[in-house]
From TrEMBL:
The lineage of its organism: Bacteria, Bacillati, Actinomycetota, Actinomycetes, Mycobacteriales. This is amidase. The keyword Transport does not apply. GO terms for molecular function: amidase activity. It catalyses: a monocarboxylic acid amide + H2O = a monocarboxylate + NH4(+). Belongs to the amidase family. It comes from the Bacteria. It comes from Mycolicibacterium sphagni. SUPFAM superfamilies: Amidase signature (AS) enzymes.
Amino acid sequence: MDSTDIAFAGAAEQARMLVNGTITAPALLELYLERIARVDRELRSYRVVFTENARREAAAAQELLDAGERKPLLGVPIAIKDDVDVADEFTCYGSSAYGLPPTADAEVVRRLREAGAVILGKTAVPEMMLWPFTETVAFGATHNPWDLARAPGGSSGGSGAAVAAGLAPMALGSDGAGSIRIPSTWCGLFGLKPQRDRVPISPHDDAWCGLSVNGPMARTVEDAALFLDATTALPGPSGGFVAAANREPGRLRIALSTMIPPTVIGRVGSAQQKAMDEAETLLRDLGHHVIWRDPDYPAWAVYGHLLPRMWRGVYQDVAALPHRERLEPRTKGIARLGRLISDAQIARVRATEPALNARVQSIFDDVDVVITPGTALGPSKIGQYQHRGGVSTLAMVASRVPFLGMFNATGQPAAVVPWGLDNDGVPLSIQLVGRPSDEATLLSLGHQIEIARPWAHRRPPVS
């Protein structure tokens, strides 16, 4: 196996290689540091790389490996999205408005370290995690390794570009309205938005009024399951998530839907529709019972529930920054909308979540999994939304990604599975949505699809 094959092997396989002595932790880290220095000049997927700290962590991991220590991610490098705290390193949120570096790791980072991971660096994000593209005044644009003229998605765009280009075996993302699933879709990765509260988000608890969660962006389903086993704060399936991923899913009842939630204007592209049709054929061939049926999305769900929580959450995040005058104009515009929503109003909005859940999740009385397109269209071109205000940008980007935010509002798990390339040569996906707390079924089905339609061998032109 040459160095490029190792770089694209994924976290779980690298963990096995480290245990077997096929490679050492310092050598694995240096492999990524060399690739980042060479490739990331074009992509700009990292805001910062922790070169010397990572070298110390890799050396310490190797000492433990040599002593016979075994941890799930011992010696495996992991990239961290730049809205998650790493002790003594700035958390910039894609902005120059940030303050002093935190003195402690976020809980999810602490758990990754406890599992043996080497923290490689922090990945680029749009300002305040607002957009499905990753372009900022403070740090510039991050490019998609499949097409440098296009965005990798957002807000976990740097994480997506880094893993896709073989600059990290796995990355931490966060998802408040699709921010793991969008870049995973457009970068050709398996991305999982876990059940709310599955993966800790402390010290930023209740981010975006409960919409946002942390989760993995990975080359394989097993990698994502390994991440969950290392970080879960809730009881998982019997034997753990890796075991669940490797179990046969049995004959599932699956509903396919391309319905865009009411009040969102958009259309499903021809390549995305073709992926859904192909998924129907494959799932039937795999023995599942497949129907076309739409979830019951309330007409008030987007503007009466999802967006108020998002806007208020952005305002709360902005209010905590010491240099708000440095924010981009469209970020300030969204924050102003959030400021107009009082605590009493947001409490009333959040009180409607049980009614929203009851309607959207009623489809699970009859099916086990709902499948939608990952996105309705492919990614925007770099710079496409420059010089636009917050509301107009949001209206335009929503048509590309209408299927995702609803499941942040309900809190249930959802994953995107790579499904070939679109007409522009950029990856696309299908989205698997599960019952509350049922990541196990999504991992099992995702792994079954992965075996039938492998994707991890694909490498983008810029890699």
